[in-house]
Fold:
Amino acid sequence: MANEQQLQTYKEAILEVIYQEYGVLKCGAKILANEISISSRTVERWFYKKSAPNGEQLLKLMAANEVIFNKVLELVRERKQLKQRFKMDKFKN
Structure:
């Protein structure tokens, strides 16, 4: 279990998986943009880490791609475990 310093930020984690899934593809930005009904320029900004998906875009990404869906669930689990550990440590003291 990672500690708080080792946890990837939302932006780092999501942009990494988006790039791994689509950034390596020829026309990956256009493919992803078409899948979730946004502009390819927005996706290109994600590839270059200039911005990250907002909540609605994230939901569309999760619906469109199983790897992204699983990455978000992993981030949630990590944070829940960290919160639970913090509560347990606080209770012990």
About this structure: The mean pLDDT is 89. The chain has one domain: 9-92. The CA atoms of residues 15 and 29 lie 13 Å apart.
